[in-house]
Amino acid sequence: MTVPAPRARRRTSMLGRSLPLLLIVALLAPVGMLFASTWRHTGDDRKLADSERLGVEYLRALAPITEALVEAQSNAVAGRGVPGEPLTRAVEQAAAVDARIGGQLRTQERWAGLRAKLEALRERSPADPEAAYTAYGEVTDLLLALHRKVRESSGLGRDPGSDSFFLQDSAGQELPEAVVAAGRLADLGALASRRPAAQRPRSLMELTGLRVSALSPATDVVDNLRSAVDNSESTDLGANVLTPLDAYQRSVEALALYSAPSAAGTVDQGQLAAAALNTRNAARQLQPVILGELDTLLSDRIDGLARDRWLTIGAGAVAALLLIWLAGLLVAADRRSRRRAAAPDAVTPAAPPPGDPWQPPAATDIRPLQPVGAAHEPVAEQWGPFDAAR
């Protein structure tokens, strides 16, 4: 009868032992990539929001300069004395802001050029109304260009939020342009009333063009702010913005009414100047509200990004701990498997040698069907008589 040999224990291959660890690494790689992508994305958004807040601060400093410069232009065109203190104080405040954050916004060169023009304008104080109108117009063009530079360098023009985008567009571009254009419109009306009759057609064309330049951005301000209120999740935005916005909208409607030429091709210069002044006063009340709400939205966004970063850190830490724990379990299981494989096997009976499975019985065995005595005789004595007869 054949005795089956014991089955040899199969040893785990190197690939089989390393496969679980490779799977863990395969899981860890996308988790790490997702963590890095989220961290980089939130970091970029945080950097943009911080830069935008610097832009808001710079725009706050430019607002007094815009108002003081438009008022100085009106006084110069009307032949009145130009008070220098409001403009000087506004320039000093803006210079302090530019010295602190102008390097980050890359506005120092433009500010230096504008400040030089402002100082030269205050020292010269042109007596000719036409020359004053032209000189102040050049300076206000530089001021509006600085507004655009601030929006571009700070990233306000690339703001991803719908409500904050409308706010920054209103405060950083449309409202300054509307204030400057309204002041020019009123001053040009004063100049046109003193020009010769031969120049009246040219003056009327200039007034018509300036009327469009003043009313178009003013209308955009109203539309932008209403869109910001409609698209915002903030409950305070509408309550804070709508009241000064309504006052500004009424002043713009009055400006549109009194700047329209009559049938005779003339405008009432007194009513136009009063409407432009009301528009400037309404803008002075509206702009700080817009900038304040914009800064609040940016601050809330920064806080939200900070929370997202902490959630990302927590999720990444939990995922890493789980994968480390799983790797520890697999390593421990592999070590136990190696120890079992290195332990000696139990003693088992040796298998018969290959060949004829039949084995002759040993000499001491008692063969059946033979006499008892013959079983103990030598083999040669038993077969001796048979060999002799043969």
Report low-confidence residues grouped into runs of 5 or more.
Answer: none
What is the global morphology?
elongated
The rounded Rg comes to 48 Å
Helical proportion, percent range: over 70%
Biggest sheet architecture: none
Mean pLDDT across residues: 81
Walkthrough of the structure:
This protein is an all-alpha fold and 390 residues long. It has one domain (23-316). It is built from ten helices and no strands. It has helices spanning 14-78, 85-105, 108-124, 129-154, 162-194, 200-231, 235-258, 269-342, 379-382, 384-389. The longest helix is centred in the C-terminal third of the chain and has 74 residues, at 269-342. The chain starts with 13 loop residues before the first helix and ends with a helix. The model has no long low-confidence stretch (mean pLDDT 81).
Keywords:
single chain; 390 residues; mainly alpha; 10 helices; 0% strand
Short recap of the structure:
It is built from ten helices and no strands. It is mainly alpha-helical and 390 residues long.
Task: List strands and helices in order, with pairings.
Blueprint lengths: L13 H65 L6 H21 L2 H17 L4 H26 L7 H33 L5 H32 L3 H24 L10 H74 L36 H4 L1 H6 L1
